[in-house]
Amino acid sequence: MDQTAFGDTPASRCMYYRRVCDLPAVLDPPALGRIVVTASYVGALIVPARLGQAVKTQMRQRGNGVGPVLSHPRSKRWSFLIRPDLPDDVRLFAEMFRLDVSVVRTGGTIALPSPADECAMFRCWVELPRSRFRPSGLVVVDAIRRARDRPGVGPFRMA
Questions:
Q1: How far apart are CA 127 and CA 56, in angstroms?
Q2: Are 85 and 138 spatial neighbours (Cβ–Cβ below 8 Å)?
Q3: What is the pTM of this model?
Q4: Domain boundaries, the chain
Q5: Which pLDDT does position 150 carry in this prediction?
Q6: So what's the pLDDT on residue 43?
Q7: Contacts of the segment 27-33: beta carbons below 8 A, 24+ positions apart
Q8: pLDDT for residue 117
Q9: Could you state, in chain order, the average pLDDT of each consecutive group of 10 residues for the chain (159 residues)?
Q10: CA angle (147, 149, 155) in 5-degree steps
Q11: Which residues partner with 36 through β-bridges?
Q12: Residue 69 DSSP SS3
C-alpha cells in the first residue's frame, strides 16, 4: 500500500482509506487503533479462504476487477469489499449461508487492516485497495457460484 504521502499510523491509514479508497473508515476505539467501516455504500461478502481463492481466480478469468480483498488468517476467511447491490432475497441469502458465505449488509461492521494490529494474524490485504473501485456484489456472487461448481475446487456446501 502506498502510504508515503500519509505515513503509516492508524490515523494516517484511516485517512488513506477515506481519501484514496472512498471507504468510510474510522478509528474504533481510537486508543487501540482498530479501523472499521460501517457498511452503507460499501458491503462485504465473507467466504472461506479456499473458496475466496477460487472466486478471485474466476473473477480474473472473466475479466472482472477483483477490488479490495482482505484475509482473516486465524479464521481462514476472506472478505471481498463490494458495492452492496444484492437484492433483499431470502433465497439468495439461504444459498450463500449453505456455502458458508456471510453477507455484510447496511449497518454491519467491517474491520480493516491497521498498523496497530499486533501481528498479521488478525487481518491483512490479499488485494490492496488502491482506488474507489469495488466490484458489484452480483458479480462476486456469480463468481462464487462458478467457483462452487468448478471440478476439483468444491465442495463448499455445508453438511
A1: 10
A2: yes
A3: 0.89
A4: 10-149
A5: 75
A6: 98
A7: 32/116, 33/9, 33/114, 33/115, 33/116
A8: 77
A9: 65 96 94 94 97 96 95 95 96 97 96 81 91 97 92 54
A10: 90
A11: 26, 111
A12: strand
pLDDT recorded at residue 121: 73
Write out the three cell numbers for 35.
479501523
Grid cell in block for residue 46: 465473507
Bridge partners of residue 38, in order along the sequence = 109
Give the integer Cα–Cα distance in Å for 40 and 9. 25
How far, in Å, CA of 72 to CA of 84, rounded?
A: 21
Q: How many residues does the chain have?
A: 159
Find the Cα–Cα–Cα–Cα dihedral 158, 73, 18, 105, rounded to 10°: 20
Residue 155 identity (one-letter amino acid): P
Round to whole Å and give the CA distance between 149 and 1. Answer: 34
Contact 83, 136 (CB under 8 A): yes
Q: Which three cell numbers stand for residue 111?
A: 474491520
Which residues make Cβ contacts (< 8 Å) with residue 94, sequence separation at least 6? none
